[in-house]
Write a structure and sequence with these properties.
The complex is a heterodimer of chains A (about 400) and B (about 250). With about 400 residues, chain A is mainly alpha-helical. Helices cover about 70% and strands about 5% of the residues of chain A. Chain A contains 16 helices and four strands. In chain A, strands 2-1-3-4 form a four-stranded mixed β-sheet. The model of chain A has no long low-confidence stretch (mean pLDDT about 85). Chain B has about 250 residues and is α/β, with parallel strands linked by helices. Chain B has a six-stranded mixed β-sheet with strand order 6-7-8-3-9-10, with helices on both faces. In chain B, strands 2-1-4-5 form a four-stranded antiparallel β-sheet. The mean pLDDT of chain B is about 90. The chains are: A mainly alpha (about 400), B alpha/beta (about 250). At the A-B interface, α1 and α10 of A face α2 and α3 of B.
């Protein structure tokens, strides 16, 4: 192997690819655009939808309550609810979204409160429907307040302290630092996106440099040169790896910029209690990047080997597209809550990296796993590269008819 | 100099099993000579030439090209061969100059030699007007010239042409034919394959007729005319192929 030859091939492939619009899109545009689009885009959209649902003055039906004018008039005084006349088809009306909820006031409700009798108020709503949920919450809150107030009045009438019904408080206190809380929630997505983008970034150049070269007929010409085939395939491999890693790095930068921007936006909107109260340290970013390198090598060599089999661009695409699913599945499994790293999982490529990066972004460093995953992925990557180099020596692969 | 000795190639095909593409092909081509490999499609021309260019490894037999063995010293053979094939195989996104430079570097030339050779070739082939234009923006004739410059950049003593004029218009084909002649007058060893009789008649010093992977007849055009008692090369070719099939039929 001669580094000079590998360099000559690499520089040519790099120049060639950088002039290719399709490579540029997958390598530069997609990673830069996709993150802001995914996070800010979806965030803004859902915030808008929730905001709209909260702003709506819901229509709520009151059932019964004719003999309880006190509670009925208080209820009707609620400003943010529009009460409609009772009708026996309230359930259908809720289902058809004509009204958002209905409240059933039991008979003698006012009198029961007065006499200290227990009764049940029913609030009908459509579970899972955001607007129905908001409406029923308002009604439930009204009756909870009324209940608290009634208890206080009853206690005061009997000269008893308020602490009688609430002898102590229960409070949950979080000990995890904020970056771990949000790191665990958001951190899973970061390696997932980086891994997927490392794959998509390598896909197009891998096809172009192998099957594409066969289709154009240039492979024969280049095989006539005295450069050994190992040097040729390594030059090509380094180009594909460059594409894969630059896509990953650009995705990381774009993601970082997006989160910083989103954090500032939310801080300005909500204040300090915004859900993006987290920061991922440089150390974590560096470790994640380090862990992604062997995965990118694995992808680049694997894609190169697969695409080399194909006779044409289209054939290569049909081989590689299903591979996307094979890679997405372990990455998604890592995203599922409760999936935890263990020794067996550490040997599954992609899934292990995804899991360990999720831990790293939330501030947990299991060094033994990190070393094991890095080493096992390196072994897989080396095997894939060896296969690609071997295939490039085979006449029946290069000149498949 | 090219000396093929009992060159054979067997391919493994999933459906057809073992396919003998070339069997025991032996011939010799001297410097300053054009050897024409004449045969129909699928006769074994491309496989033979690819073995000479070391793109394919012979299953049996060997060849010496420019004094080097194709099996034992393929790298040295490649450094001494210029190969031009049917397809105007260029990297569309590179400019004409970048394309030729890339191959010069693959052939291990140093930068000053590359610079000198490219200037010389681009002037000789009248390519200076489009040296910075991308290959995919060039006309077929221009592309052909870039291919020629690419083949010649390392000044190889042996030239191998695999059906170089297929699909070209008259003018572009003429450029190639002229170029092949020039190679001969510069003392290069030239082998080229074709199924166009007129090209063989115009160009070749010696002719090999290949069919079914076998070299059925060989000699100068005059030799062949005398041996088979016919004037027209096409008649000679068809006669040889038909008598081969008759013998095959009798044998089986």
């Amino acid at each position: 192997m001669s580094l000079h030859n590998v360099g000559v091939v690499y520089r040519k492939e790099l120049r060639d690819s950088l002039r290719d619009r399709r490579t540029l899109i997958s390598m530069i545009v997609v990673p830069i655009v996709i993150m802001p689009l995914m996070t800010i885009g979806i965030g803004v959209l859902s915030a808008k939808l929730v905001g709209k649902a909260m702003e709506e003055v819901p229509k709520v039906m009151i059932l019964g309550g004719q003999d309880s004018p006190e509670v009925t008039s208080e209820l009707k005084a609620l400003k943010e609810v529009d009460f409609v006349r009772a009708s026996p088809d309230y359930a259908e009306q809720i289902s058809d979204k004509l009204i958002r909820a209905a409240v059933e006031i039991p008979p003698h409700f006012d009198a029961d409160i007065e006499n200290g009798q227990t009764s049940t108020v029913k609030v009908y709503h459509y579970s899972g429907d955001l607007k129905s949920g908001f409406a029923s919450e308002k009604i439930v809150k009204f009756f909870n307040d009324l209940r608290d107030q009634t208890v206080k009045q009853h206690l005061a009438a009997r000269n008893l302290p308020a602490s009688l019904v609430q002898p102590f408080d229960v409070m949950q206190q979080n000990v995890a630092p904020p970056e771990k809380v949000s790191g665990a929630a958001i951190g899973g997505f970061i390696p997932y996106f980086i891994i997927i983008l490392c794959l998509t970034g390598a896909m197009y150049p891998a096809i172009d440099l192998t099957a594409g070269e066969k289709e154009r007929g240039t492979i024969e010409t280049v095989l006539c040169s005295p450069v050994p085939r190992t040097d040729l395939v390594l030059g090509k491999f380094f180009m594909v790896l460059t594409a894969s890693l630059s896509t990953g790095i650009l995705a990381m930068i774009s993601m970082g910029a997006t989160f910083v921007a989103a954090k500032h936006m939310l801080a300005a909107l909500i204040g300090k209690d915004n859900p993006l109260q987290f920061s991922i340290g440089l150390e974590a970013i560096f470790t994640v990047f380090l862990m992604v390198i062997p995965v990118a090598v694995l992808f680049s060599a694997g894609l190169l080997a697969i695409a080399l089999f194909a006779k044409s661009y289209k054939e290569a695409q049909s081989y590689i597209s299903p591979l996307m699913i094979v890679v997405i599945i372990p990455a998604i499994v890592a995203l599922l809550p409760g999936t935890e790293l263990n020794a067996r999982m550490a040997l599954i490529p992609v899934l292990s990296t995804s899991l360990v990066c999720k831990e790293i972004t939330s501030g947990t460093y299991h060094w033994s796993y990190i070393a094991m995953i890095f080493a096992s992925t390196c072994v897989y990557a080396a095997a894939a590269l060896a296969i690609a180099v071997k295939l490039f020596q085979r006449e029946d692969v290069l000149f498949r008819t | 100099m090219i000396e093929a000795e009992r060159l054979s190639k067997v391919f493994q095909d999933k459906k057809r099993g073992q396919v003998r593409a070339v069997t025991n092909v032996s011939f010799r081509c001297n410097p300053g000579e054009i050897y024409g490999l004449l045969g129909a499609n699928g006769a074994g021309k491309t496989t033979t030439l690819r073995m000479l260019a070391t793109i394919l490894e012979p299953t049996d037999g060997t060849a010496r090209v420019a004094g080097f063995d194709v099996v034992k010293e393929p790298d040295k053979v490649r450094a001494n061969v210029g190969f031009l094939s049917t397809a105007t195989a260029l990297y569309g996104r590179l400019t004409a100059q970048e394309m030729v430079e890339y191959f010069a570097r693959l052939y291990g030339l140093d930068e000053s030699t590359i610079h000198r050779r490219i200037n010389d070739l681009f002037t000789r082939l009248e390519m200076n007007d489009y040296r910075d234009r991308r290959c995919d923006k060039l006309s077929t004739g221009m592309k052909q010239k870039v291919s020629i410059a690419r083949t010649l950049v390392h000044d190889p003593p042996v030239m191998i042409f695999d059906e170089p004029t297929v699909g070209l218009d008259v003018m572009a084909a003429r450029t190639i034919v002229q170029f092949i002649r020039e190679c001969r007058s510069n003392g290069k060893t030239v082998i080229f394959s074709t199924h166009v009789m007129s090209e063989v008649e115009k160009l070749c010093d010696r002719i090999g007729i290949i069919h079914g992977g076998l070299l059925l007849a060989e000699g100068t055009l005059a030799d062949l005319r005398q041996k088979y008692g016919m004037q027209d090369l096409e008649d000679i070719f068809v006669g040889i192929v038909e008598s081969f099939h008759q013998k095959e039929g009798v044998a089986s």
